[in-house]
Structures
1.
Amino acid sequence: MEDDIIYRKLRLILIGFGVIGQSLTKLLLSKSADLYNIYGIKPRIVACIDNKGAAISSSGLDLERLLNIKKSKGTVARYSDKKVAMNSLEIIENTEAEIVLELTPTNLENAEPGLSHLISAMRSGKHIITANKGPLSLALPSLLELADYNGIMFRFSGTVGGGTPILEYAKHCLKGDRIISFRGILNGTTNYILSKMETGLDFKQALSDAQKNGYAEAKPSLDVDGYDAAAKLVIMANWIMGMKVTMKNVNMFGISKITLDDINKAKNKKCAIKLIASCENKVLEVKPIEIDINDPICVDGTLNAVKFTLEHAGEQTIIGKGAGGIETASAVLRDMIEIRDNIINKI
Amino acid sequence: MEDDIIYRKLRLILIGFGVIGQSLTKLLLSKSADLYNIYGIKPRIVACIDNKGAAISSSGLDLERLLNIKKSKGTVARYSDKKVAMNSLEIIENTEAEIVLELTPTNLENAEPGLSHLISAMRSGKHIITANKGPLSLALPSLLELADYNGIMFRFSGTVGGGTPILEYAKHCLKGDRIISFRGILNGTTNYILSKMETGLDFKQALSDAQKNGYAEAKPSLDVDGYDAAAKLVIMANWIMGMKVTMKNVNMFGISKITLDDINKAKNKKCAIKLIASCENKVLEVKPIEIDINDPICVDGTLNAVKFTLEHAGEQTIIGKGAGGIETASAVLRDMIEIRDNIINKI
């Protein structure tokens, strides 16, 4: 019983209840038996915040009810009749919890409100898991220092590769070896557009196709101009290579000027044009370049692919879906299990 | 100082001093500063055994001298003037060490001498790292039980994928998710032969080319008839899927009957014939089949590739070199760091 109290208590503050937050909640529901039996955890969401308000319960919110309320009323604020008076920063600071999950949408301009959420969580000594690229791409070096200073664990697997464990792979699977450089396709939208252009559509047609299929936003600049890939590159460079860099350190070129003529010229050389993010000789770059069609990173559609070059084991490539609600939620869950394992090892 | 004694002591018994054993020794030499500074270990080889004899030193053998003696005299037995009187099993049982490295060549018929080495090591309470597929493919379920019974750690990353961390990926990077099935190319030799056939060589010509380039043995049956891929499949099924299986549970078909006509028929369907090892619905199979050329596992040359299908995160593929002395040695080193981390966590 005491075991239960010490080891299994995992109280979560969930901030952001969009696709990823809701997918995570569904995962916690559907996998609760596995989480307890295999990993020994019983996570409870003690506070859930969306852009219209919050729901709070120190004994844990009812997850089915939370999902239903969000669906029927549009906000978790309607979970209880009594309105929660605190704002999100006050909730983070004043609610007892082990982990803050920051899952609000990425904002690459000023990183808010995510950045303030992260800083509040760190200051109040709570571990953090985020899938929000904004704060990381603009301030990861400082955030890592702040996390270290406050003695908290800070994880963000879901920011790169969706559910594909690119960050963990580099950190956990390559011990004893050394990553010299890496390059790859980190943005599924532009890869979809470029793959469509291979079939004869021009850039505008391919973009419009991507928009119709829900792969591109109405304002597609974040993807097609390279910002999203650059943000992920920055995260990888900090976490994997120990570089202290932000978005301004990336040489960035988008794909909007790629023509069918460029595509066909590449094809004649048995190549395809791909938007490649690379970290080579400490230089960070996002740029459309010709890739040999036999290169393992030359994948089609919305796939992501990263190739690591190692000192001893040579080149290794990981390929997987780079986005998706349930996929990204699975990365958040993985981070949660890792943090909990580390908490136990420290006891 | 006491820290040094408790944490850093890592005495190794190295059995088998061929390409992998020598590559590992070179790695220990070249990376000794990193191993101490980054991972906090100072490995010492206290016994080294090859097929003609042994060298022993409780304070640690001089690694440069060991490599030179092997090169100039053909056996480590000449390391000292005094011949070591014990045989390999006696050395394993009577030498104080934390880890036994079993790196003798794979024997898929009766798994010896590797199997006896492993059993001796387990009985004498030593942790084990091996790159030898023989004992694992024939008796992994029993060996895992025996390891558990004796409370020792048993690792074999180098048996699958060379330096590509396929086993670790499945075990460490996919926590919280569930692997439903996997399939891939686990043998580089047959993949090289099939890739050569794509260029117009028939099977015999492609095999002869592979032999000339050192990718295939004079007696190529182990590779071309599927035994090597089947052995790796068995190891993955036990370790990743928790199945209790050995070689006899694999439906195995080789590539020696593949004709240029088969290759061309596949090509017309935008496919390539690959020797695919698969674990699907608990059925284990090694068989040449047609793979879509856009499938991420459709890699060329001596590369290996494995695709995992996950419950939540979809399909994920890892690609890398599947063999090589230094690559496999890097996997052995990775296992060593993991075992040492676990020893410390248990203190």
2.
Amino acid sequence: MDVVGLGYCSLDYLGIVPGRPEFDVETMSLSDFAKSGGGPVSTALVALARLGARTGYIGVLGEDEGGAFLREEFEREGVDLGRLRVQAGARSQICMVLVEAGTGRRSILCYRAAGELVLDEADRTYISSARYLHLDGHHMSAAITAARWARADGVKVSFDANRPRPRLDELLPLVDVLIASERFPPAYTGQRDQVRAGRSLLELGPETVVITLGAEGCLCLWGDQVIPVPAFQVDVVDTTGAGDAFHGAFLYGLLQGWELKRTAIFANAVAAINCTRLGGRAGLPTLAEVEAFLSEPGLDKS
Amino acid sequence: MDVVGLGYCSLDYLGIVPGRPEFDVETMSLSDFAKSGGGPVSTALVALARLGARTGYIGVLGEDEGGAFLREEFEREGVDLGRLRVQAGARSQICMVLVEAGTGRRSILCYRAAGELVLDEADRTYISSARYLHLDGHHMSAAITAARWARADGVKVSFDANRPRPRLDELLPLVDVLIASERFPPAYTGQRDQVRAGRSLLELGPETVVITLGAEGCLCLWGDQVIPVPAFQVDVVDTTGAGDAFHGAFLYGLLQGWELKRTAIFANAVAAINCTRLGGRAGLPTLAEVEAFLSEPGLDKS
């Protein structure tokens, strides 16, 4: 196994709206609609699988139509489900995602199902078989346990830091690769400057800190190095899953032993390609598609 | 066949939101989520079928997962699909319905698929076999043709008038029972007073005009009679489908030969019961459930 992921998985219903919805007015038209699996860790795993990596998912799905859809999507993509829990009688997580036409701004509305995750020895064996354990802060107790096992068993830990949440002070020292969304470093460290905030995060334990900056690309910090890598310009339809796609692709680069900058360019490319389709996973490219994208004449890859 | 319906059918995804969605803020929580068939004519047919009437649907669905869900729901409810069109390669109509917790105010966002309906002789035979033809203004050309056939063949025509739309001046003279939403009579006739507006509608041809007034109940006009019938008080979860349920139940009463007031009380009861569940069809009652509801002690049925 290359990457085992433990975290969130939801069924997303996405619609493109002309503007902010109002109550009790005429019906508003959706110019497009899509149904897709979503969730940070699970979408990163699908991104990795589509690139050719061997992946497995630890998480909880409901015993409903949504759970069945999500399982089928994982299986079709080749993500191993040997440690998936299907909670009897429970509903799966569901999100409605409204994407504003033109601006790409999003409104995300989620129905949260319970689904507690309790790990056992079989999960430890599963995680130990991987080179990376990827986490997103969902199921935090289980995530901390899994990260401790990973460290003890020589498995690298990567973490998608989307927002401050309880018990991060326990988790972050166990993380090797911290990939944070733009808002996380300032919010968590209290430092407004991303480079300073990133350096504060490095001091907490991670060997590598990457800060994703949306249309600006990303910033990689490793030791004393600070490497900004600009994003690719594409016609954005929907940014849902762009971060998740980036995380999966970044791990793919690390698995190949690529240097940080090459890895970040590759991850930026995968995220950009994913933004050209509606839904978190519809636009995830194969390795050949990323290579074709990166070899387009005139594309600035500096 | 008791009622053949020709009109709109959509797949609804409904979520209960705490307030009006905003863009680019934290994820909002849905306190409940449901998936349901929707659409005025099609939901009225399901309401009728659940009450025990023999119904059939003429309309167009896509050849997709949504279309399959809608067909299965119709079949489970016993609505005949002998004249249903499934459009090869097309997508079905989909709506996202956001219901505000507490107020019940709704924001309806719809993805409209094409799906033109062209009638043929087999449809005429199908319609002629029914006692009522129910329309909602969708597929207007086909609806006018169907209404002409119905009149010629001694089939009564009922029409769910939700909002002014093109070619109503051709359709309304062919209608026997016009059931209008609150906003329709003033908007169409230019008369603000509902009784006056209702009388103007009667002059256009319909034998009976019913105006639904939400929590206020309904107003029935027939000849010189004006009969207001108050609504039942229930704990409303979601008003989606309340009007459609009313139409189906009203037709059920007419099929039984009940007088107007009894029919309206029955229809108010079915609409009220349907408001206690999320989604247009989940709360539709059986005949026994309506009878139990109407025999509850203390319920004002005056």
